[in-house]
TrEMBL record:
TPR repeats lie at residues 220-253. Residues 1-23, 53-95 are annotated as: Disordered. Pfam families: TPR_12, WG_beta_rep. Residues 1-12 have a biased composition (Low complexity). This is WG containing repeat-containing protein. Signal peptide: none annotated. The keyword Zinc does not apply. The lineage of its organism: Bacteria, Bacillati, Actinomycetota, Actinomycetes, Micromonosporales. Keywords: TPR repeat.
Length: 527
């Protein structure tokens, strides 16, 4: 039996620094001396030389040249982006996670599935993962070990065991609230479901896992595996698109990925020659099984707004002077004879009557909406039954996102869904810039937000802790770092603890991101 997920991770006692070790889950920033030379940590990959119990580890990569000054030591930088595992002691033998991460996989040229030369060796790895799992009680460790054990069971063909471990791993991962850990657990479970033939759910999980807030090289690996699932289904054009995206996301040279992708493209070409192109690629909404809500449509004849379905037919009759789009399954509408708004569901059923008196309304998100009786201030939060959940009036508000909302009362801060202040009301702005070009009102999916203090930017997390003090002229959240601008307008980077990583000497954000691609040696997760 797996232990139930716990709500609070235990605080580990202080321990002496240990050498940085790449695990199947880690992303390790590689620091260099102030002279500017960066030595890449040898992160084990799927195609590295086989490491057998008692064998030698994979050789280190050659030093890579860099043009930026990188500060800090490798161990400190790595700790900011990963949870390194301690090295195995000679008495205990190699750590099973390290052995698995360094395993040299062979793939069938048609199915692209792993081929096992020595099942007993994998069973031994699984047994040793179980030994590590038995005493583990915290959610992060159990999520990681259960999902890795699911990988081994899948490759061995024990799909029932793999499914059980994969599902429980996702429960523990979601209890941590950590985006990357949840994404890895979803991708590993998706691969099990793919092998079981549960393609609809597998593809949905692959799509959910592949967040734009993850490192590009991790996303490339996920696209590669999603492409294999499409190949199994005969969705050859869709598989080709995934493999092409995997290559596009690998901005730095990656011979191993290129080799695997070329093999995958050969497999797709062979299947197309035998069976044709297959179905037209699905949209993301189709893969995620998201039904499109009715959309507003103005009727010229009656001079009123109604709603139309995906096929263009009217599903809610035109009877409103004004409407808002459906969000979270509900939409605000205003009748010609009323100044206040009422709430309806996608069938047109009234959920909140206009006589509730809300002159100002915001769209529902996370089950709550901000409303105001005068439309200018004193915003409160209500649920879809019209019950006031947060009665404290705020001067300005933003929608809830993953349980938190940015609000202003004197200054900007943030509250949870019970109205408790998480971030104090002391900032002049709350606009989170991401490297994929998006700006988020409040917190990212990863639980980070950029705050503004009089024109200076910093970062807070979802607990309200200040990760980066608001002292930078400009700041952007990168999947494994924070990009910062210095006083002169040149750019550099901080690690995920807010410590200097690349000095602000580079001419643009793009150059910093390219430098990070060269400096970051991330493992290719065993999915």
């Amino acid at each position: 039996m797996s232990a139930a997920p716990v709500s609070v991770n235990p605080v580990s006692p202080a321990v002496p620094p240990t050498p940085v070790v790449a695990t199947p889950d880690t992303v390790l920033p590689v620091a260099a001396s102030a002279a500017g030379a960066a030595t890449a940590l040898s992160a084990p990959t799927m195609l590295h030389p086989l490491v057998r119990p008692g064998g030698a580890p994979a050789p280190a990569a050659e030093p890579a040249a860099t043009t930026a000054t990188v500060t800090g030591d490798a161990a400190a930088a790595a700790a900011a982006a990963a949870e390194p595992e301690p090295e195995a002691t000679p008495e205990a033998g190699p750590d099973p996670e390290q052995v698995l991460a360094a395993y040299e996989w062979r793939f069938h040229h048609e199915t692209l599935r792993e081929l096992v030369d020595n099942p007993d060796e994998l069973r031994e790895i699984r047994d040793r993962l179980t030994e590590k799992l038995t005493p583990a009680t915290d959610n992060p460790t159990r999520a990681r070990l259960l999902s890795l054990r699911a990988v081994v069971s899948r490759i061995l063909g024990d799909l029932t065991k793999a499914l059980s471990d994969g599902k429980m791993a996702l429960v523990h991962a979601e209890a941590t609230g950590e985006l990357r850990r949840i994404a890895l657990a979803k991708a590993r479970l998706a691969h099990v479901l793919q092998w079981r033939g549960d393609f609809t759910e597998a593809d949905k999980l692959f799509a959910e896992a592949n967040s734009t807030e993850l490192p590009d090289r991790l996303r490339a690996t996920m696209h590669e595996h999603a492409g294999r699932s499409c190949l199994d289904q005969g969705r050859y054009m869709e598989a080709f698109n995934h493999f092409e995206k995997a290559l596009e996301l690998r901005k730095v040279e990656d011979p191993e990925l290129i080799t695997r992708t070329e093999m995958a493209l050969d497999a797709v070409s062979m299947k197309i020659a035998e069976n044709g192109m297959g179905p037209y690629p699905r949209s993301m909404d189709e893969i995620l099984q998201v039904s499109k809500p009715p959309v507003p449509r103005f009727d010229e004849r009656v001079q009123c707004w109604g709603f139309a379905g995906a096929d263009g037919r009217t599903v809610i009759s035109p009877a409103f002077a004004d409407v808002q789009p459906f969000r979270d399954g509900a939409a605000w509408v205003r009748r010609p004879e009323m100044e206040t708004w009422e709430l309806i569901d996608e069938a047109g059923t009234r959920l909140i009557d206009g006589r509730a008196g809300w002159l100002g309304v915001g769209s529902f998100s996370d089950g709550l909406a901000w409303v105001s009786r005068d439309g200018a201030g004193n915003w409160v939060a209500i649920d879809k039954q019209g019950r006031v959940v947060i009665s404290t009036g705020f001067e300005d508000v933003r929608p809830f996102r993953r349980g938190l909302a940015a609000v202003r009362r004197g200054g900007w801060g943030a509250v949870d869904k019970q109205g408790r202040a998480v971030v104090p009301f002391q900032f002049t702005g709350f606009a989170t810039a991401l490297t994929d070009g998006r700006y988020v009102d409040g917190f990212s999916d990863e639980g980070l937000a950029i705050v503004d203090a009089g024109g200076r930017k910093g970062v807070v997390d979802r607990t309200g802790a200040v990760v980066v003090p608001p002292v930078h002229p400009a700041l952007v959240i990168h999947p494994v770092a924070f990009l910062i601008a210095g006083p002169s307008g040149r750019w550099g980077a901080l690690d995920r603890k807010g410590r200097p990583f690349i000095d602000p000497e580079l001419p643009s954000r793009q150059v910093v991101m390219e430098e990070l691609d060269r400096l970051l040696a991330d493992t290719k997760p065993v999915l």
